[in-house]
């Protein structure tokens, strides 16, 4: 499989990035988002959007998110996540989500939330491995009639009162974590010339 690199979205390259992003994301949606939905997120929180590109700079994965004040807390929200079908199962989405979360942590986020279809096994596995917890089941949440889970990741001790921090049980030595936790414990955002390694 080709070598990938990870980049942060920038609005100065909207003409290049946005059409590719829409094409990738709309492939997996029954009701494609309008361009205004993308612009709502990207104009305000382009710095919380990360992309995986192949060696030809073709987009193979993307995460779109935002960070806002919500009931006195800084709440991050993962709005869109997609990886091209032939690139799935290699950890690309996990890395993109971790980059978004790391960027939110830098901005003092308290928690991160999202919704995903209850039947989306890959997404549920990915998010729960990162420490997201099921906070609510939303009956017939999507237009296709499917139900969703709202998932929440608590980033600070005492917030959400669940004794977890970014997927790590509080008080546990990060070096002694069980399999599956180690990756979540490490910030991945090593940036060099606008690119993440
Ligand atoms: C969900 C999605 C983004 C995951 O992308 P990805 O790059 O393959 O994700 P990762 O490789 O980081 O991790 C996926 C995890 O799900 C597992 N998985 C993938 N397909 C699965 C399936 N059908 N059943 C069970 N587990 C599955 C993988 O094994 C992996 O877990 P592991 O690391 O413990 O083995 C991708 O499947 C996708 O684009 N789906 C369509 C859009 C979508 O559903 N977006 C999410 C909306 S919230």
From TrEMBL:
Matches recorded under InterPro entries: Acyl_CoA_acyltransferase (IPR016181), GNAT_dom (IPR000182), NAA30-like (IPR044542)
Transmembrane segments: none
Keyword annotations from UniProtKB, A to Z: Acyltransferase, Cytoplasm, Nucleus, Transferase
GO cellular component: NatC complex; nucleus
Catalysed reaction, written as an equation: N-terminal L-methionyl-L-isoleucyl-[protein] + acetyl-CoA = N-terminal N(alpha)-acetyl-L-methionyl-L-isoleucyl-[protein] + CoA + H(+); N-terminal L-methionyl-L-phenylalanyl-[protein] + acetyl-CoA = N-terminal N(alpha)-acetyl-L-methionyl-L-phenylalanyl-[protein] + CoA + H(+); N-terminal L-methionyl-L-leucyl-[protein] + acetyl-CoA = N-terminal N(alpha)-acetyl-L-methionyl-L-leucyl-[protein] + CoA + H(+); N-terminal L-methionyl-L-tyrosyl-[protein] + acetyl-CoA = N-terminal N(alpha)-acetyl-L-methionyl-L-tyrosyl-[protein] + CoA + H(+)
Molecular function via GO: protein N-terminal-methionine acetyltransferase activity
Keyword Nucleus: yes
Statement: the UniProt record of this protein carries the keyword Nucleus: yes
EC number: 2.3.1.256
Subcellular location: Cytoplasm; Nucleus
Coiled-coil ranges from the UniProt annotation: none
Pfam family, one: Acetyltransf_1
Record domain N-acetyltransferase: where: 7-156
Family, as annotated: Belongs to the acetyltransferase family. MAK3 subfamily.
Name of the protein in question: N-terminal methionine N(alpha)-acetyltransferase NatC
Organism: Talaromyces rugulosus
